Amino acid sequence: MIKAVMVMNTQGKPRLTKFYEFLPVEKQQGIIRTVFGVLCSRAENVSNFMEADSIFGPDSRLVYKHYATLYFVFVFDSSENELAMLDLIQVFVETLDKCFRNVCELDIVFNYSKLHTILDEIIFGGQVLETSSAEVMKVVEEISRQESASNSIGLVTKTVSGWRNR
Amino acid sequence: MNPFSSGTRLRDMIRAIRACKTAAEERAVVRKECAAIRAAINENDQDYRHRNLAKLMFIHMLGYPTHFGQMECLKLIASPGFPEKRIGYLGLMLLLDERQEVLMLVTNSVKQDLNHTNQYIVGLALCALGNICSAEMARDLAPEVERLLQFRDPNIRKKAALCSIRIIKKVPDLAENFINPVAALLKEKHHGVLITGIQLCTDLCKVSSEALEYFRKKCTDGLVRTLRDLVNSPYAPEYDIAGITDPFLHIRLLKLLRVLGQGDADASDAMNDILAQVATKTESNKNAGNAILYECVETIMSIEDNGGLRVLAINILGRFLSNRDNNIRYVALNMLMRAITVDAQAVQRHRATILECVKDSDASIRKRALELVYLLVNESNVKPLTKELVDYLEVSDQDFKGDLTAKICSIIEKFSPEKIWYIDQMLKVLTEAGNFVKDEVWHALVVVISNASDLHGYTVRALFRALQTTAEQESLVRVAVWCIGEYGDLLVNNAGMLNVEDPITVTESDAVDVVESAIKRHTSDLTTKSMALIALLKLSSRFPSCSGRIKDIVVQHKGSLVLELQQRSLEFNSIIEKHQNIRSALVERMPVLDEASFGGRRASSLPNTVSTSNGTAVKLPNGVAKPSAAPLVDLLDLSDDVPAPSSSGGDFLQDLLGVDLAPATQSGTSQAPKAGTDVLLDLLSIGSNPAQDNSVSTPDILSSAQDHKPAIASLDVLAAPSLTQASSSTASNMMDLLDGFAPAPPKPANNGTAYPSIVAFESSSLRLTFNFSKQPGNPQTTMISGTFTNLSSNVFTDFVFQAAVPKFLQLHLDPASGNSLPASGNGTITQSLKVTNSQHGKKPLVMRLRIAYKVDGKDVLEEGQINNFPRDL
């Protein structure tokens, strides 16, 4: 099971965090800080895996990937395949890339809720839901369409009602 | 329009937060936003609820409290629009914890949404449920989820499958409801649904043995077929990762097969072929392929035994080890660590590759490889493996040397085939990384050297040579100084030359040079300097020609600011100057140090107390000086009836003295002030309680300067001359005593006057008889041979005898002949004692004794006083 997904920038600012096991906010922040502390002190040419038992309790592993200004971190237990998790990070990033056309940190900052939607289509309650970024894209696009469809309706009614109230 | 509602959009808020230069600024912005959102919540603002919650989620991510927004999530979920619901559910997953009361409120909305006509809304509800569902919700909503497993759209089916995992984890009783739907899911053609179905099946098998049995019987063949089709399937662009069709599905299938095959020979048999096929056919030049291979290996190692497959699997791992990708090497080492318990032989074959990984540039790989190598060492390969590791020690990173040294030392100690090899390897390690060697390790080395009497010459010459090349390694210097002090004569006259050695010419003054440089080095610490000082004293006797020079060096430390050095230097100077006649006896070679007791000491970090110590030290060879320990102080005082438990000070003293003092074997030495020899001897006992200190339990200066490390302190005793004894005399008259008193140390004599034997002690279960003898010409000293006989019908174990005498007597106990006493007089323990009566002719002998032993695991303690000694002893 995947325990947490974290995206943070190279300054240690969290950009997306999702914990699949309940943790109080302070604990989450502490973990993010610790993980960042470990990541930024790692050399370039080392493996992408880390023992995370000290951070997340027993039976925890951590895999991370470093893209431009962002760290993508997955934390999971021994029931997941480390190498597959590495590929899953790749799938996630590829999907983001397709969604935002050359994703950069700013896209992630400002499209915070969309990022969650995408993540929810890939990892569901700590389990891998979908591994084909094309499939994910289809669903995400459909959700955006639904959103804007009802939004435009909502917008019209709001303006109209606002106009009437005036 | 709400006048309090901040008009900022989400985008603007994020921008404002990003623009903050300091944490304080950020807090201010967030506080302002939160205040506005709270106001909006109080106003029950409809229009911006959705936007406010989106802001709150961002604020939450930054680590600020957002609990006040929880009810807003519920309101949004209850609203009809898709965007509101979406944000509502997102908020539900992020902001809410599993606190039941709030969650209960949402159950109904979720239930409605699970039955919604819009499948995306169904998807949102499933997603939230899969993330935060509690046990109650699981019970309430399980039927809906179960129904959705047959939904027409695959997206909903796969979400429902994963949601079911959460449900059965929360309520394992519900597992049986899912068995049939899952069996159907396993026949799916849609990859996404199949992955989630397999995942659900795996988790079902984990929570329910019934489900495991069912799937094992009904589905193993089907799953094997699915995997075969997948392996042989043509290129499918959709699920292609790096040229391999859906590695995730491969992995999930292999994982499920592992669960099914574990502990079941038939199921394991059914999957052997396909596993072999995956293991051989999968391409290993990409991460995805390696991920499959890795999973396959794990499955092969877990299912029931098939030797051929296992060798194949371990060979795959061996291949991984030479992969250029750090990640692959890392997982391979992890897996080999587990595989070693399954098939050590197969892992051994990859020893060379693993050894290469010890030299990896990646620290975490090095560490793992080193651990693995450590597990691989056995008697047959210890020599080449150690050689490799020691060679690598030369070039390894500084920060890795500590780990590496510790492991090498541990390997050498554990598997050393012969002493010369042990000494050779340890010398190499000391030369390369002596500063990383822990104290216990070089202590152990000294013990081994001391025990290898035929290698003394060889060792001291090798150390001398090593010291010529490098003098930077503290522990090398210490060992060398100790050996030169002890065996300096062998160094000079090339005694005990081995065939493998090159002869070297060392003059006496060369040897002194080495020790002198050790004591003068700035980097030498107190321990090294003290050891060097003692070595010098010893050399002054071994090399009479250098005596004058040594005296000069010793004298230089008369002004040392360190009290210990200053004091020793004064004492040693006095010995060299005024006591030539006893010097050689004083600085005799250390008796052989007992390996067993030293090992015992290391094993039990807790100091033995008098009452709990057993006979581990029984093997202590005679002649090792065993000074009195503090716990005996109370025994020594015959007017004191209550035997006090050993104080921590006493334990400390025992530690200081460096031997595992079991009472049965220690000598209680109580000395009269005029026993000048002992006072003298005592001077030499650096590290033991100083003679001039009347309180026996006070730690000595040297050790207190070193944080009371028993290990170090004990070595000070190793470094001290052989005749080490503590005494209770005072220092005030010490110098006087030194002057004008120089007898040779008492020597035991075999013949003596006969005295009638007495029954010293008799209880219902035990009898102790004493036989006496005297040395001719030494009427003060009485040799007593005690014989213990067991009168009961039970065997006594852990038998310990202790004796104490008043201050005018001096008592020395030799080790007992054993520590278990057979029943009904079928055997005896004998122990000899030596009593010196300083008031000979005036006062008779008197002795108090305490005997502790175990009967049927129960401790028994007997005590008594012996007053019936023959009058003229």
TrEMBL record, chain A:
<dbReference type="GO" id="GO:0030123">
    <property type="term" value="C:AP-3 adaptor complex"/>
</dbReference>
<dbReference type="InterPro" id="IPR027155">
    <property type="entry name" value="APS3"/>
</dbReference>
<dbReference type="Pfam" id="PF01217">
    <property type="entry name" value="Clat_adaptor_s"/>
</dbReference>
<dbReference type="GO" id="GO:0006896">
    <property type="term" value="P:Golgi to vacuole transport"/>
</dbReference>
<dbReference type="GO" id="GO:0005794">
    <property type="term" value="C:Golgi apparatus"/>
</dbReference>
<keyword id="KW-0968">Cytoplasmic vesicle</keyword>
<keyword id="KW-0813">Transport</keyword>
<dbReference type="GO" id="GO:0030659">
    <property type="term" value="C:cytoplasmic vesicle membrane"/>
</dbReference>
<dbReference type="InterPro" id="IPR011012">
    <property type="entry name" value="Longin-like_dom_sf"/>
</dbReference>
<keyword id="KW-0653">Protein transport</keyword>
<comment type="similarity">
    <text>Belongs to the adaptor complexes small subunit family.</text>
</comment>
<dbReference type="GO" id="GO:0006886">
    <property type="term" value="P:intracellular protein transport"/>
</dbReference>
<dbReference type="InterPro" id="IPR022775">
    <property type="entry name" value="AP_mu_sigma_su"/>
</dbReference>
<feature type="domain" description="AP complex mu/sigma subunit">
    <location>
        <begin position="1"/>
        <end position="145"/>
    </location>
</feature>
<dbReference type="InterPro" id="IPR000804">
    <property type="entry name" value="Clathrin_sm-chain_CS"/>
</dbReference>
<dbReference type="InterPro" id="IPR016635">
    <property type="entry name" value="AP_complex_ssu"/>
</dbReference>
<keyword id="KW-0472">Membrane</keyword>
<keyword id="KW-0333">Golgi apparatus</keyword>
<protein>
    <recommendedName>
        <fullName>AP complex subunit sigma</fullName>
    </recommendedName>
</protein>
UniProtKB/TrEMBL annotation, chain B:
<dbReference type="InterPro" id="IPR017107">
    <property type="entry name" value="AP1_complex_gsu"/>
</dbReference>
<keyword id="KW-0968">Cytoplasmic vesicle</keyword>
<keyword id="KW-0472">Membrane</keyword>
<dbReference type="InterPro" id="IPR011989">
    <property type="entry name" value="ARM-like"/>
</dbReference>
<dbReference type="Pfam" id="PF01602">
    <property type="entry name" value="Adaptin_N"/>
</dbReference>
<dbReference type="InterPro" id="IPR002553">
    <property type="entry name" value="Clathrin/coatomer_adapt-like_N"/>
</dbReference>
<dbReference type="InterPro" id="IPR013041">
    <property type="entry name" value="Clathrin_app_Ig-like_sf"/>
</dbReference>
<dbReference type="InterPro" id="IPR016024">
    <property type="entry name" value="ARM-type_fold"/>
</dbReference>
<comment type="function">
    <text>Subunit of clathrin-associated adaptor protein complex 1 that plays a role in protein sorting at the trans-Golgi network and early endosomes (TGN/EE). The AP complexes mediate both the recruitment of clathrin to membranes and the recognition of sorting signals within the cytosolic tails of transmembrane cargo molecules.</text>
</comment>
<protein>
    <recommendedName>
        <fullName>AP-1 complex subunit gamma</fullName>
    </recommendedName>
</protein>
<feature type="domain" description="GAE">
    <location>
        <begin position="753"/>
        <end position="870"/>
    </location>
</feature>
<dbReference type="Pfam" id="PF02883">
    <property type="entry name" value="Alpha_adaptinC2"/>
</dbReference>
<dbReference type="GO" id="GO:0006886">
    <property type="term" value="P:intracellular protein transport"/>
</dbReference>
<comment type="similarity">
    <text>Belongs to the adaptor complexes large subunit family.</text>
</comment>
<keyword id="KW-0813">Transport</keyword>
<keyword id="KW-0653">Protein transport</keyword>
<dbReference type="GO" id="GO:0030121">
    <property type="term" value="C:AP-1 adaptor complex"/>
</dbReference>
<dbReference type="GO" id="GO:0016192">
    <property type="term" value="P:vesicle-mediated transport"/>
</dbReference>
<dbReference type="InterPro" id="IPR008153">
    <property type="entry name" value="GAE_dom"/>
</dbReference>
<keyword id="KW-0333">Golgi apparatus</keyword>
<dbReference type="InterPro" id="IPR008152">
    <property type="entry name" value="Clathrin_a/b/g-adaptin_app_Ig"/>
</dbReference>
<dbReference type="InterPro" id="IPR050840">
    <property type="entry name" value="Adaptor_Complx_Large_Subunit"/>
</dbReference>
